[in-house]
């Protein structure tokens, strides 16, 4: 089959690029290894119309690209959640039991001082990033990039509780441990936040009414027959005249290829000639965080918290249905980083993992014991089509890879949250789809 552009990956990035290319008058085909659209955006239904997001979940009020897509398909957001720093200051589950923040730490001035010093340091580092899209331009980029989040903890001599809470925050927001994230990447993320706050004011977090899969399905329906499912890419040939893609089902010839799949499955594809330079290094080495999300639905919301932070493997547990009506509710036990890997390794079967997590939830909140209605558990990092939850730049990675991976390799372009400015979010995936499609259109004109 011949087409103008072959897109690999039917996640938010790939479908966004396909829509833009069609609007620009170019033919595109979307090749997807799985059986559905959306990629790491996947809503699960746990009965009586209640739903939860097993993958990408949050849409911030500053996420203009996602909001534009929702408007295009007449979908809306629900909720008006507090800023992240307020939500993450939740209940504490530790050796003293489940306690509200007022009893656990809010009255401790030293803890507040630790949080303030860490926040100030990251903000100072972010101030040196003139453009969040190019953090490598920081005057001290290499020095900062060589340090990790854990190094910042040590430099500030943070107390044990602040380290625990900030570790849980990094495991939740970046799906890695503090030692595995670049201080420059933390600064870049803060620079994004500062830019958003300057433009939009206080940022609130929302969800898609009915689930993000509604948006993915609407985009796929709009694209129609160009969507090709169950066709994993096996071989990619590229040169100055175009590209040839070999899938499990056929061959596609195109002027350009947009690879909108995560990097781990791309590493299994035979590429001729091989990618070279820093681009190749980035494709081969950029790390992805690990996440398991386990949902348990109960007939009544007999838990006293909206969000809780735990010292047990549960890490973060929150009401996934806070914006949905009815007495029943769904708790989401979110585990990121090394804890997610350990949980999935110990309980590789989804049902066994669900049972184990449910027992821990009910040990934490005894009123829930034996009352679960339904549940589901999903681990993203072992799945062959994804290989991780979302990308995270480790120490040294921003200066090594950031710019190189965002440039095309001849007629091959990358799209996805890993090459966005707002990395780790659905907004970033859509942002990258727009940017990559625009680059292809400009090169074709």
Biggest sheet overview: 8 strands, mixed
Oligomeric status: single chain
Q: How far apart are the termini?
A: 22 Å
SS-based class: alpha/beta
Would you report the number of β strands?
Answer: 22
Describe, in short, the structure shown:
The protein has 445 residues and is of the alpha/beta class. Helices cover 38% and strands 22% of the residues.
Would you give an account of this structure?
The chain has 445 residues and is of the alpha/beta class. It is built from 16 helices and 22 strands. Strands 1, 2, 10, 11, 12, 13, 14 and 22 form an eight-stranded mixed beta sheet that branches. It has helices spanning 12-23, 64-72, 84-87, 101-104, 109-127, 141-145, 149-156, 160-174, 183-200, 213-223, 263-266, 277-285, 338-346, 350-364, 397-405, 426-444, and strands at 2-8, 28-31, 43-45, 51-53, 59-60, 77-81, 91-94, 97-99, 205-208, 227-228, 233-239, 242-247, 251-259, 270-272, 287-288, 291-298, 307-310, 316-319, 329-336, 374-379, 391-392, 412-414. The longest helix has 19 residues, at 109-127.
Give a topology summary.
Blueprint: E1 2-8, H1 12-23, E2 28-31, E3 43-45, E4 51-53, E5 59-60, H2 64-72, E6 77-81, H3 84-87, E7 91-94, E8 97-99, H4 101-104, H5 109-127, H6 141-145, H7 149-156, H8 160-174, H9 183-200, E9 205-208, H10 213-223, E10 227-228, E11 233-239, E12 242-247, E13 251-259, H11 263-266, E14 270-272, H12 277-285, E15 287-288, E16 291-298, E17 307-310, E18 316-319, E19 329-336, H13 338-346, H14 350-364, E20 374-379, E21 391-392, H15 397-405, E22 412-414, H16 426-444
Parallel strand pairs: 1-2, 1-13, 2-10, 7-17, 11-14, 13-22
Antiparallel strand pairs: 3-4, 5-9, 6-9, 7-8, 11-12, 12-13, 15-21, 16-19, 16-20, 17-18, 18-19
Helix pairs in contact: 1-10, 1-16, 5-9, 12-15
């Amino acid at each position: 089959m011949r087409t103008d552009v072959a897109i690999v990956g039917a996640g938010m990035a790939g479908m966004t690029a396909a829509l833009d290319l069609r609007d620009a008058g170019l033919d595109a085909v979307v090749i997807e290894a799985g059986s559905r659209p959306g990629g790491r955006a996947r809503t699960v239904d746990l009965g009586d119309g209640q739903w939860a997001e097993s993958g990408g979940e949050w849409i911030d009020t500053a996420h203009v690209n996602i909001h534009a897509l929702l408007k295009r398909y007449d979908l809306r957001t629900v909720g008006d959640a507090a800023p992240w720093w307020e939500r993450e200051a939740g209940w504490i589950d530790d050796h003293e039991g489940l306690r509200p923040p007022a009893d656990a730490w809010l009255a401790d001035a030293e803890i507040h001082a630790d949080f303030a010093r860490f926040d100030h340091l990251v903000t100072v580092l972010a101030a040196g990033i003139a453009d969040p899209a190019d953090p490598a331009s920081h005057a001290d980029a290499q020095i900062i990039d060589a340090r990790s989040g854990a190094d910042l903890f040590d430099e500030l001599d943070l107390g044990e509780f602040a380290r625990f809470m900030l570790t849980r925050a990094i495991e939740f927001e970046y799906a890695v441990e503090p030692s595995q994230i670049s201080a420059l990447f933390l600064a870049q993320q803060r620079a994004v936040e500062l830019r958003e706050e300057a433009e939009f004011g206080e940022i609130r977090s929302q969800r898609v009414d009915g689930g993000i899969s509604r948006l993915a399905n609407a985009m796929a329906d709009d694209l129609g027959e160009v969507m090709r499912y169950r066709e994993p890419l096996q071989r990619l040939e590229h040169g100055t005249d175009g590209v040839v893609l070999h899938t499990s089902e056929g061959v596609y010839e195109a002027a350009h290829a947009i690879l909108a799949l995560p990097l781990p499955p791309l590493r299994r594809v035979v590429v001729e000639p091989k990618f070279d330079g820093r681009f190749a290094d980035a494709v081969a080495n950029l790390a992805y965080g690990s996440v398991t999300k386990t949902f348990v639905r109960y007939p009544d919301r007999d838990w006293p918290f909206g969000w809780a932070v735990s010292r047990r493997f549960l890490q973060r547990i929150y009401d996934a249905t806070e914006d949905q009506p009815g007495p029943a509710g769904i708790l989401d036990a979110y585990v990121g980083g090394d804890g997610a890997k350990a949980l999935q390794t110990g309980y590789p079967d989804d049902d066994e993992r669900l049972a184990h997590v449910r027992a821990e939830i009910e040990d934490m909140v005894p009123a829930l014991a034996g009352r679960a209605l339904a549940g589901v558990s999903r681990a993203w990092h072992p799945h062959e089509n994804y290989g991780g939850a979302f990308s995270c730049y480790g120490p040294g990675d921003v200066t090594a890879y950031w710019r190189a991976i965002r440039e095309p390799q001849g007629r091959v372009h990358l799209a996805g949250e890993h090459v966005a400015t707002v990395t780790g979010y659905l907004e970033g995936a859509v942002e990258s789809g727009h940017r990559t499609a625009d680059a292809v259109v400009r090169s074709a004109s």
